[in-house]
Amino acid sequence: MQPYPGPLRHQQDQSVERPGLGTQVVALAVFLAASFLVAGLGALATAGNVDGWYTTADKAPWSPPNIVFGPVWTILYTAMAVAAWLVWRKQAPGTRRTMTAYAIQLALNLAWTPVFFGLYPTIGTAALWLALVIILALIAAVSVTVLYFGPISRAAGLLLLPYITWLVFAATLNLWAAIYN
Fold first, then answer.
1. pLDDT tens, 121-170?
2. Whose CA is closest to 52, among 113, 127, 118, 110?
3. Which of 19, 26, 146, 173 is the most buried (most CB within 10 A)?
4. In Å, what is the CA distance from 154 to each residue of 47, 56, 80, 84?
5. Whether the Cβ atoms of residue 85 and residue 28 lie closer than 8 Å to each other
6. N- to C-terminal Cα distance for the chain?
């Protein structure tokens, strides 16, 4: 009599056909495009406001110069896309749930910039507090994504750790702005 294999062993025994090289290259391009679409839409929200209300805003003493944000976000968006691609290409059990978590964090990422930068001129400090709620939800969503990514691809999980670190740092900047503006 053989022991019951259990749900995890059963899932591991299932053979999954991995996508071919051409499909993987296209998928990587799609993940990169999605990341940079979010980045581009965020840039539209900041364009008129970084040189507008934000120049005279009370910023945290540890706030880096504005020139730092573009390169940092470029690296983070690239790492996010590569991490998602690494998980997607494994086609492991639970990939759909994992990609859903990734999409949720990407949507929250997309929501933060227009709320923080774009809504402030309209609704004032309330926009900064709302942005803080969004970034805290984003930190939680990225943390869940890391927990989902890690078992499928350790490299993917590790690629998101600088993102969480930066988000926590950005949340401190957001909190300062909400309190002092």
1. 999 999 999 999 999 999 999 999 999 999 999 999 999 999 999 999 99
2. 118
3. 146
4. 36, 43, 13, 12
5. yes
6. 70
